[in-house]
Design goal:
This protein is of the alpha+beta class. It is 25% helix and 38% strand.
Length: 360
Amino acid sequence: MSLIAAFAVARGSFTLEVELEAPGGQVTAVLGPNGAGKTTLLRAVTGGLAVDSGSITLDGVVLDAPPDRFVVPERRRLGFVQQDHLLFPHLSARANVAFGPRAQGVAAAAADARAAAWLERFGLADRASLKPASLSGGQAQRVALARALAADPAALLLDEPLAALDAGTRVDVRRDLRRHLDAFEGPTLLVTHDPVDALTLADRVVILESGRVGQTGPLAEVTSRPRSRYVADLIGTNLLHGSADGTTITTDAGEVVTVAEEHRGAVLATVAPTAVALHRSEPEGSPRNRWRCPILDMDLLGDRVRVRLGSPSGSGGSGGSGRVFLVAEITPAAVAELGLGEGDEVWASVKATEVVAYPA
C-alpha cells in the first residue's frame, strides 16, 4: 500500500510539480520554506484542488487523473489532522471520534463503541464526555488523531500536527504520536516546518522548494548530504557549492577550499559550524584553510554563539556585500576573549579533514 503523487497544478502564477511516493507503514515528512507548495500539495491529495495533469493514486486506486477521473474528498479514505484540530465544539470527545464512522454509515452504538476504544488507546477514556473547550491542547490533538484513525483511513495526512502545542506538551504528544504511527499500516504524509518533528517521526523526507521536489530519500541520507541552502540551514551546517580539481574546491563565489580527498567537477561541501575556528591573527600550524572575513552578525543560542562571516578578503565575493560565507559556533567565553563584535575582521580556519565534499 502506498500513496503516489505525480502531478502538476497551477495556482495563479505559482505552479506545483511533484513526484513523490509515501510507502505504507512509514512516515514521509514533507518539509520546505513558506511558499514552497506544501499546502497546495495537501489540498490536491485531499481533493480540495483538482490537478491539471498527472495523477494521484492510493493503494492502486486512482484518486485524480484528469480529465476523466476525480474522486470527491469524502470518498478518498483519508484521515486528516490539522494543527488547529478542527474538533466540533458542540460535541463531546467521544462524539467527535464517532463522527467519522457515523458518516460512513456505521450504526450509532457501534460508532460510539469504536470511539470509546480509540479514546481508551489514547489514554482519554476519562475525557470522553468533555467538549473540546474543556480539553488541554495535547488532549485535543490526541482526540483529533483518534477521530482520524477511527474512520479506518487508507492513509493519514498530518498538517503541522504539533505546531499549536506549547514546548512541554509537544514532547509528550510527539512521543505518543510516534507510537501510534508505528502501528498504522497505511502511508502517513507529515507536513511540517519543524525539523525536530521530521527527525523524530519520519522514516523518509521530501524537501519541497519553489514548487519542486529538490531532495527525497531516507532521513539519514538527506541530512548527511544536503543539496540546498534550505536543507543545510535546517540541520545547522554550512553548505558550499563549487568546482573541484583534486583536493581544491573553488566555490561559485571564488573562495578556495582545500579538502582531504580528491574530487572532480561540480561538488557540494559541508562544514559543521563547530569546525570553524576564529582567530584575531592569521593562524599557524595544522589548519590548511584560512580566510580573513568580516563578522556580519552574532546570535546567542543556548551555550553557543553563532557568528556569521562574510566573503573573505581577496575572494571573488565582497566582504561588504552581506553574503554569508560561513557560520561559526563558538562559546561566549571565546567571544569575550577575542573581543569580537559585528563589523570586525577575523581569521577563520577549517581543517581539510572537516570539509565533507560530494558530487553536486
